[in-house]
């Protein structure tokens, strides 16, 4: 078990970032090169476990000789490329993108959004009080996680995680077009009527908090969510022999959220319903209503209480993927 | 992939519509009745999923028969093609010609776009509303229908077996149907000497292959076989032909790059999505001289090593779809498509795909996603289509007009072709002249003719000319004192304009320019695919700002809104993924900067005072 896989040696290519020469392995992105040069380029739709969708455009940089700006997250570094991360042009587009997003979407739980808005001098309020937004009530249709699409920036990460890049369940997709586009199940059905298997892999990658554990959602609503009082402990899931790493977020001695390290070679951040949501049994506290999934639910051959009433169709929400 | 379905059942009619396209379901797994046997094996895997490209045709089949797509029908399509229902829902809701809610079988699509607006679409809309009630059920406003020479236009689509269509242009006040005029009706020059691309329109029977051959058809393909693929590419390179779809990329270079690709198969895609407001030239070619496009696609495929070509025609062109389908079928039956074309061992065939109401599907990578059965969202480039295009394979995408230039190039020779035109713009160009002119229509002139000459050909402006929109919604406005601009790529660029897809929309003093700008903004907001933030939200903010600027009396903070437009426009141009977002502010910018729209006469908010 001690063999270390050797990567074939990769050629290094040289590019300049803000006038500074950096060398990155062939195949690296401009974002990698910016990181190597110590530049902090904002990203939102980029995910370390996903193929870049380059949809948000907050990471745009100026590439010498290019007609338009380039998304750093997906553009491959090429030998001799000259990249400007802080040119007036790049900063202008980043500022406007932040203004467009912040004026249409609730970014209150998007990490670093407020910092970037200040850094780029973005003024989302300039579009006036009547500016169209995606404000809408959160979708609370199951006991495990909440979809609050008023916070959704349509980064496609949840769709990619649910679809062919990880989970292969395809419970959600982008529906509609343009500003009316949303993340949706078929016919906007509740999750409990959809193909969702509650792996929570979409929650894991959501960059805005639009998708969150029901625990987090409820605690935030009650004003109890406090990350400064939370500890994170990485352990191994005890449900089956795969050996997934779990990171337990614990506040006041209660598990409030479960993740998995994105660099874990087994999970790449992905889990199944048991590892993600089946933690209630370790907490020796009286159950609060509404119930979270319990071990008894999992052992119940009829399926968990929150499952679809008619479990007639294939797939279903039964935890069959362990 | 483990598909999960809800309990919705298709109606017998919906099932029949899908089965008419796909054949009866082979097993219970694909939506047929469940049998004992189905319990002992599982269908699935790649074989089941590989037919995803039939999703769009299957959705059309249901929508054509029933008028809308129910939950049961969508589920049935998904079972037949092994597509997750959420994804199919995402695809169906992408297209404006599909409805996921019940609606009447017959829906009138009333054009409210630029050329029609310049010719009284506002009044028409009010009449329609009085007769048919509020929009959304039996009628709906529509972007440009490509019938601009007959503005104000409308298109009636009636579901059924078979579905019916009727084109109204101009729409009669009492909404009665009139017979559609022949294609050459849109070509005032028809029959004149000197035409190249339009020479057969009106002269040839579009249904007759024999007539096409009698008028010189298929001589170019024979010549291509003599030249060989490399020889054809050389001729096209030497001719200086550049793409007519809007991006003006040299066609020979595209073909050469594709032909070189070691990965196979190669695909040819002919882009007949023609949805740029004010554009109708490709429609006229497809309706008036369909075999010319079949022959041209065959030559392109021969040169670039393609076995299969897709002809993607916008869904609002029923007659073009009918004529092209007929031409392809006849050519196939006569050995001009198929495994052994003209007995020369060359194999090529054409599949026709119908769009379903989405301008963005004309973008060269969005068209791949649309054909493949995904949402018509542009892909990021690189990789470019010639490397990884349709189904991930090397692909040549060309516009209809670009392709029909190729037979004349081969027949006359590259030098003769290159001798026509001016500077780097060789050959002739089709212009779609509409709006305030005496004889709107498609005109063919050599590159280098001036805008004034073109307008004169069309009978001159029918009022006091206020401006000309060149290049469509993604183009820019030209002033009456600039009419001597030579119509070449270089000439228009020199004055900060563009030829785009050949739109020449004349606007006289009677037209409310600010209203035209609003319509342009609304068009981009409606047609944005929604993928990237600058375009998805930027087009909304652009429209909102124009609404504010349009308010009477003029708002006091017009300068702030103009600055906002400029800043958002710059970010859309710089940071959007594709050409739609990148050009969404072009026309508005040119109207502000060149025509002085929104610069009020009071000195405090004059054009000079607005920040730039
Ligand atoms: C939003 C958008 C819409 C487009 N629509 C069309 C179209 O309807 N027809 C077309 O030929 N090209 C269209 N284009 C241009 C195509 O991307 C592509 O450049 C063209 O089809 C290539 O063919 P060509 O080289 O023969 O011009 C569109 C581009 C964009 C960005
Ligand atoms: S929980 Fe898992 S199956 Fe459900 S939508 Fe999210 S990624 Fe898809
Ligand atoms: S829900 Fe989250 S992950 Fe999904 S698109 Fe919206 S912001 Fe992205
Ligand atoms: S620019 Fe607009 S149409 Fe193009 S990819 Fe972005 S959102 Fe879609
Ligand atoms: S992070 Fe690069 S485009 Fe979103
Ligand atoms: S048909 Fe109405 S604008 Fe073209």
UniProtKB/TrEMBL annotation, chain A:
<feature type="domain" description="4Fe-4S ferredoxin-type">
    <location>
        <begin position="188"/>
        <end position="216"/>
    </location>
</feature>
<dbReference type="Pfam" id="PF04879">
    <property type="entry name" value="Molybdop_Fe4S4"/>
</dbReference>
<dbReference type="InterPro" id="IPR027467">
    <property type="entry name" value="MopterinOxRdtase_cofactor_BS"/>
</dbReference>
<keyword id="KW-0677">Repeat</keyword>
<dbReference type="InterPro" id="IPR006963">
    <property type="entry name" value="Mopterin_OxRdtase_4Fe-4S_dom"/>
</dbReference>
<keyword id="KW-0408">Iron</keyword>
<dbReference type="InterPro" id="IPR036010">
    <property type="entry name" value="2Fe-2S_ferredoxin-like_sf"/>
</dbReference>
<dbReference type="GO" id="GO:0046872">
    <property type="term" value="F:metal ion binding"/>
</dbReference>
<dbReference type="GO" id="GO:0016491">
    <property type="term" value="F:oxidoreductase activity"/>
</dbReference>
<feature type="compositionally biased region" description="Low complexity">
    <location>
        <begin position="301"/>
        <end position="322"/>
    </location>
</feature>
<keyword id="KW-0004">4Fe-4S</keyword>
<keyword id="KW-0411">Iron-sulfur</keyword>
<dbReference type="InterPro" id="IPR050157">
    <property type="entry name" value="PSI_iron-sulfur_center"/>
</dbReference>
<feature type="region of interest" description="Disordered">
    <location>
        <begin position="299"/>
        <end position="322"/>
    </location>
</feature>
<dbReference type="InterPro" id="IPR001041">
    <property type="entry name" value="2Fe-2S_ferredoxin-type"/>
</dbReference>
<dbReference type="InterPro" id="IPR017896">
    <property type="entry name" value="4Fe4S_Fe-S-bd"/>
</dbReference>
<feature type="domain" description="4Fe-4S Mo/W bis-MGD-type">
    <location>
        <begin position="230"/>
        <end position="286"/>
    </location>
</feature>
<dbReference type="Pfam" id="PF12838">
    <property type="entry name" value="Fer4_7"/>
</dbReference>
<dbReference type="GO" id="GO:0051539">
    <property type="term" value="F:4 iron, 4 sulfur cluster binding"/>
</dbReference>
<protein>
    <submittedName>
        <fullName>Respiratory chain oxidoreductase</fullName>
    </submittedName>
</protein>
<dbReference type="InterPro" id="IPR017900">
    <property type="entry name" value="4Fe4S_Fe_S_CS"/>
</dbReference>
<feature type="domain" description="2Fe-2S ferredoxin-type">
    <location>
        <begin position="11"/>
        <end position="89"/>
    </location>
</feature>
TrEMBL record, chain B:
<dbReference type="GO" id="GO:0008137">
    <property type="term" value="F:NADH dehydrogenase (ubiquinone) activity"/>
</dbReference>
<keyword id="KW-0004">4Fe-4S</keyword>
<dbReference type="Pfam" id="PF10589">
    <property type="entry name" value="NADH_4Fe-4S"/>
</dbReference>
<dbReference type="InterPro" id="IPR037225">
    <property type="entry name" value="Nuo51_FMN-bd_sf"/>
</dbReference>
<keyword id="KW-0411">Iron-sulfur</keyword>
<dbReference type="GO" id="GO:0046872">
    <property type="term" value="F:metal ion binding"/>
</dbReference>
<keyword id="KW-0408">Iron</keyword>
<protein>
    <submittedName>
        <fullName>NADH dehydrogenase subunit F</fullName>
    </submittedName>
</protein>
<comment type="similarity">
    <text>Belongs to the complex I 51 kDa subunit family.</text>
</comment>
<dbReference type="GO" id="GO:0051539">
    <property type="term" value="F:4 iron, 4 sulfur cluster binding"/>
</dbReference>
<dbReference type="InterPro" id="IPR011538">
    <property type="entry name" value="Nuo51_FMN-bd"/>
</dbReference>
<dbReference type="InterPro" id="IPR019554">
    <property type="entry name" value="Soluble_ligand-bd"/>
</dbReference>
<dbReference type="GO" id="GO:0010181">
    <property type="term" value="F:FMN binding"/>
</dbReference>
<dbReference type="InterPro" id="IPR041921">
    <property type="entry name" value="NuoE_N"/>
</dbReference>
<dbReference type="InterPro" id="IPR001949">
    <property type="entry name" value="NADH-UbQ_OxRdtase_51kDa_CS"/>
</dbReference>
<dbReference type="Pfam" id="PF10531">
    <property type="entry name" value="SLBB"/>
</dbReference>
<dbReference type="InterPro" id="IPR019575">
    <property type="entry name" value="Nuop51_4Fe4S-bd"/>
</dbReference>
<dbReference type="Pfam" id="PF01512">
    <property type="entry name" value="Complex1_51K"/>
</dbReference>
<dbReference type="Pfam" id="PF01257">
    <property type="entry name" value="2Fe-2S_thioredx"/>
</dbReference>
<feature type="domain" description="NADH-ubiquinone oxidoreductase 51kDa subunit iron-sulphur binding">
    <location>
        <begin position="514"/>
        <end position="559"/>
    </location>
</feature>
<feature type="region of interest" description="Disordered">
    <location>
        <begin position="160"/>
        <end position="186"/>
    </location>
</feature>
<dbReference type="InterPro" id="IPR037207">
    <property type="entry name" value="Nuop51_4Fe4S-bd_sf"/>
</dbReference>
